[in-house]
Every structure is written in C-alpha cells, then in structure tokens.
C-alpha cells in the first residue's frame, strides 16, 4: 500500500468512525489550534482557575493511593507524539468539567511503548485508551479513541458514583441476549474492547431480530455496522446495506453518503467515492465540515492518480 493510500485509508476510517454513535470519536483535524491546556483550564462563567490533573507517577502508586482514599483509578494509555493522543489531551482532558471531576479519581498516565506488558494486560490495542479500575485494581470500564468531553464527563460521573459497567457488560454477555436493545448494547461493549468480530456479530443479530417500529434504531445500527465491515475487509456488505438504506425516506442522507464514500474508497472505486463525498459536502451546513470533506476529496484524487 502506498503512503498516500495508507494516509487516505486512515483519514477515511477516522471520519467513518465519527459517524458511529457507539464510538463517539472526534473527527477534528490534528493540526488545529489547541485550546488552553489543563493547567490553564478555567470555568468560562466564573473565571475559576481549576487545578490540573494530579498525575501519579506509576500504576503501583496509583493503586496504593486508591486503596488509601477509596477512589477509582483512571489510566490514560498513550504514546508520545501521537496526534490523536495529543488531541484527546487538548480537547477533552483540558475541559474544566473533566479537570474538576479528575479529583474524584487517582489518575496515572502510561506510555504504551514503555510499558507493553501493562498495555497487554489491560487489553490496549490502540491509543488513546482509558481504563478505569476500582480500588481493588479490577477493571470497571474503558474507553477507546477520541471521545468528546460531554460523554466522557458522563462516564466519569457514573464511575465516580460507584457504577461498574464492566460487570454489567460481563453479565450481559453471560445472559446470551436475544432482544434488540440488549444486542445493541452488546455490540457497543465489544466495540469498546476493539473486538470487531464480536461487535459485528452482535449488531447483525440485532438487525435480524429487528427493533419493532423503531426504524431509526435499526438505522443507527447500520451506521455502526458498516465501518466494521470496512475494517474487516468486507466493504461489499456495507455497500449492500447502505444502498438499501438510501431508499428509506427517514435515512440520514449525509451520513449514508459519508459511509458509502468510505466504502467505495475501500473498494478502490474512487469516482463513486468522490461523488458521494461531494453529495455529503453539498448537504453540510458547517463550513468546517465542508472544508474537511474537500481535503478528503483531494486525497482521494491523489490516490486515484497513483492507481
């Protein structure tokens, strides 16, 4: 795979992932001007200066402090000079509400390259990854990739209040669910663990069961499932689902065009990809989104010229 095509695939997959409601990744440019760092975070309404994250120097010390104080542990697995890790720090961890909530946790940062055994132990496959532990050192929840501040704030609040989603997920797995809602939750859980095959299976079962009259819920499953087909080398399946969905009056046209564009990139049908990204661009009302799509179209043209 050429360098340009590799970059194109990475860019396209990140944008696709951003459309999946289960992932909640931020599709912003890595080179955008950064907001204030955590050390300078402040509440816009009160101008309150909020202390930065109190990072503990090692996991052993973090667990020791967690036992002493009865707090959960927040581990940020990252790698140095990684664009998405930097964006997570700058766009999410710097938010005043997140920084304030960090006081309810014992926080530690671990470089995955320096501690591969720990990364392997906690099932880290990509960066950034957040792993939450209880005071006993047991995993209670996790988050992969770039998550926006508001859903991450909600997740932190729930864990600080004593919720342990990992136990809920394991109980769900053991229950072998067969209803639509539980299968969707199962798919989301496997996505968070980067178990792509299991997530795909859960979403496929959910579609087979059907959501009853909630057509929108089924469409959201399709939006999450199609990037998985792409990731697993089965873009033809994504194409079939999306072309069928395109005929539905209630479908999100921009989202379907976006996913079809990525699917045709995987199929190396670059003219079709460009057509759908242009259609998405024409529907976009946000100038930033339009500019991002223009850059993506330029990259596709580069890949087409190298074909």
Describe the overall structure.
With 307 residues, the protein is an alpha/beta fold. It has two domains: 34-162, Glutaredoxin (3-Layer(aba) Sandwich), CATH 3.40.30.10; 170-306, Serine Threonine Protein Phosphatase 5, Tetratricopeptide repeat. Helix content is 57%, strand content 8%. It contains 14 helices and five strands. It has helices spanning 3-18, 59-69, 83-91, 96-101, 116-121, 149-160, 165-174, 180-192, 196-209, 215-231, 235-246, 253-266, 270-283, 287-306; strands at residues 55-56, 73-78, 106-111, 129-133, 139-144. A five-stranded mixed sheet has the order 1-3-2-4-5. A hairpin with a 5-residue loop joins strand 4 and strand 5. Residues 1-47 have low confidence and may be disordered.
Helix-strand blueprint:
Elements: H1 3-18, E1 55-56, H2 59-69, E2 73-78, H3 83-91, H4 96-101, E3 106-111, H5 116-121, E4 129-133, E5 139-144, H6 149-160, H7 165-174, H8 180-192, H9 196-209, H10 215-231, H11 235-246, H12 253-266, H13 270-283, H14 287-306
Parallel strand pairs: 1-3, 2-3
Antiparallel strand pairs: 2-4, 4-5
């Amino acid at each position: 795979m050429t360098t340009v095509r590799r970059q194109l695939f990475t860019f396209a997959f990140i944008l696709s992932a951003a459309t999946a409601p289960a992932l909640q990744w931020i599709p912003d440019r890595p080179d955008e001007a950064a907001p204030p760092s955590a050390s300078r975070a402040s509440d816009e309404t009160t101008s309150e200066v909020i202390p930065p994250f109190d990072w503990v120097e090692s996991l052993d010390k973090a667990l020791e402090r967690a036992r002493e104080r009865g707090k959960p542990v927040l581990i940020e697995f990252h790698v140095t000079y990684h664009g998405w890790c930097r964006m997570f720090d700058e766009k999410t961890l710097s938010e005043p509400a997140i920084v304030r909530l960090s006081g309810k946790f014992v926080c530690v940062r671990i470089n995955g390259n320096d501690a591969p055994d720990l990364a392997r132990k906690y099932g880290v496959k990509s960066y950034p990854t957040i792993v939450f532990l209880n005071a006993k050192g047991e995993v209670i929840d996790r988050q992969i990739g770039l998550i926006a501040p508001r859903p991450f704030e909600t997740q932190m609040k729930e864990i600080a209040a004593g919720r342990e989603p990992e136990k809920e997920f394991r109980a769900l797995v053991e229950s072998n669910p067969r209803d639509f809602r539980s299968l969707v939750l199962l798919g989301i859980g496997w996505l968070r663990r980067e178990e792509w095959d299991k997530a795909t299976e859960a979403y496929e079962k959910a579609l087979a069961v059907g959501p009853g009259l909630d057509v929108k819920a089924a469409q959201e499953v399709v939006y999450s499932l199609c990037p998985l087909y792409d990731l697993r080398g089965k873009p033809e399946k994504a194409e079939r689902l999306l072309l069928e969905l395109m005929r539905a009056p209630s479908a999100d046209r921009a989202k379907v065009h976006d996913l079809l564009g990525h699917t045709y990139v995987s199929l190396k049908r670059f003219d079709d990809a460009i057509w759908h990204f242009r259609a998405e661009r024409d529907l976009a009302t946000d100038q930033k989104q339009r500019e991002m799509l223009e850059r993506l179209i330029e990259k596709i043209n580069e890949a087409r010229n190298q074909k």
